[in-house]
Design goal:
Order of helices and strands: HEHHHEHHEHHEHEEEHEHEEEHEH
CATH topology: TIM Barrel
Structural class: alpha/beta
InterPro entries: BHMT-like (IPR017226), HCY_dom (IPR003726), HCY_dom_sf (IPR036589), Hcy_S-methyltransferase (IPR051486)
Mean pLDDT: 90
Radius of gyration: 18 Å
Protein name: S-methylmethionine:homocysteine methyltransferase
Number of helices: 13
Keywords: Metal-binding, Methyltransferase, Transferase, Zinc
GO biological process, one term: methionine biosynthetic process
Cofactor: Zn(2+)
Strand order of the largest sheet: 1-12-9-8-5-4-3-2
Amino acid sequence: MDPIKQILMQNAVMVLDGALATELESNGCNLDDPLWSAKVLLENPGVIKEVHKEYFKAGADCAITASYQATIAGFAERGLSKEQSLSLIKKTVELARSARDEYWEEASSSNNVKPVVAASIGPYGAYLADGSEYTGQYGVTDQELVDFHRPRMRALLEAGADLLAMETIPSFQEARVLAALLKEFPGAYAWMSFTLKDGEKISDGTVLRACAAELNHHKQIAAIGVNCAPMETAADAVSVLRQHTDKPLLVYPNSGETYDPDSNTWQGEGSSGCFDDASEHWIENGASLIGGCCRTTPDHIRILAEKWKMKR
């Protein structure tokens, strides 16, 4: 059964986790590397497990794995074989599942929903690390995208992920390819989450209503939404999507700060307080899966869980 549907049958809102990279950095990890959080898989995988567990303790119903930038091509540039790369990709699921199972054994008596593990499928542009992650303009064929994504998807599902998080997708082409590729794995479910140019268009300029129309007939796409976007823009986008799909909607925006890809820095100030207020707009606009992306912490997720879990 669709794991998202299972949770939403028991709770009105499914709470996702927050930023992994932010917490890894706060634990002393240096992510200034093309592999980003996947670098920690090579150096200190135990800290990834601990971050997952902190989010579960904060009230998250779902952990998103450290596989966003874990790819065969990326690891190959570090001299790893295909077999070694696939083993590391699978390890991202094993770490999240282990954290979930430990948490559940310790706290199941006070929870009515067992959390799930969503394996992150980041965009092709994240591997390129050339700015196309923010535009969706890759200049590649559909087959090249298939060849890039298929082995990682297979490995993550073989490792026992409950579903796939096709996230931070800036490209309509890539969304179509991923949705079609999912059909090669019967019984698997995924959510599709886009980055935004504005409240009506994804990063490559495709209107959200076209994205919803494309994905509506894919039964294995369990939810549609947006992430890694400013809070107000994300709320607007959810409102647009609600008009064009009956699928559950998800939103996990940034903390309130804005990323500058030219300087690789965050501008402005984030606040868990404004995150709390903003979540009311997400819910009002139709979202039923909510969480945080870059620069959010367990504190952000704790506020969402306390505010929304168990409400109907």
